[in-house]
Inverse folding.
């Protein structure tokens, strides 16, 4: 079964709706330039209603390891998502499981990137846009994804309309969606969330 991660929560109502619908993981963005960014205090409040067996994921972009560790403790994160140029040692320094984002820029050697982070729990493949670390809402060519036994998390331009196509084409470990289930950045649409999960599991 393909897991589902909804990312970019800023409102408690949206968190509760996603949990009720059956999302496997919820993402919280700790990257201030993002329109979906939350402060540690806001995130702690939002995550207080996340029950057991729903994974709390913190997204960071080139943040100092000590900052990540402090936020992880305050908000009780289960998993770290690295979207910057963090070295393997930086990712491992937090002491929590992590996933590594790979932006599918032209010519990127995905397998080499994966081999450079042997301790990663999975790799999130996202569309590439210069100067933007993620959340572009753009889709890349899924045919560029190499065959691998490593858990692949597919992101980039996913919607309720193409989620099943993505699963059929890629057979990923998980789908990660943000803009495709929103009415505006940071505000989730309950109907889109429900239709996305239905498309994946129906």
């Amino acid at each position: 079964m393909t897991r589902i991660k909804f990312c970019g929560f800023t409102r408690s109502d949206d968190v509760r709706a996603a949990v009720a619908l059956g999302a496997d993981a919820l993402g919280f963005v700790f990257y201030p330039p993002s329109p979906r960014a939350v402060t540690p205090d806001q995130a702690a409040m939002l995550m207080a209603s996340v029950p057991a067996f729903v994974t709390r994921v913190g997204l960071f972009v080139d943040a100092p390891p000590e900052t990540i560790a402090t936020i992880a403790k305050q908000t009780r994160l289960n998993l770290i998502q690295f979207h910057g140029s963090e070295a393997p040692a930086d990712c491992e320094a937090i002491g929590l499981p992590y996933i590594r984002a790979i932006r599918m820029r032209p010519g990127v050697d995905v397998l080499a990137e994966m081999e450079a982070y042997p301790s990663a729990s999975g790799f999130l493949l996202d569309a590439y846009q210069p100067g933007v670390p993620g959340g572009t809402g753009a889709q890349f060519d899924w045919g560029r994804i190499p065959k691998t036994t490593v858990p692949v998390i597919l992101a980039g331009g996913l919607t309720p309309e193409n989620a099943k196509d993505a699963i059929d084409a890629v057979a990923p470990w998980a789908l990660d969606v943000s803009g495709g289930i929103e009415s505006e950045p940071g505000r989730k649409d309950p109907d889109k969330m429900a239709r996305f999960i239905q498309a994946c599991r129906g």
In short: Residues 51 and 158 are 26 Å apart (CA to CA). The chain has one domain: 3-201. The chain is about 30% helix and 20% strand. The chain has a mean pLDDT of 94.
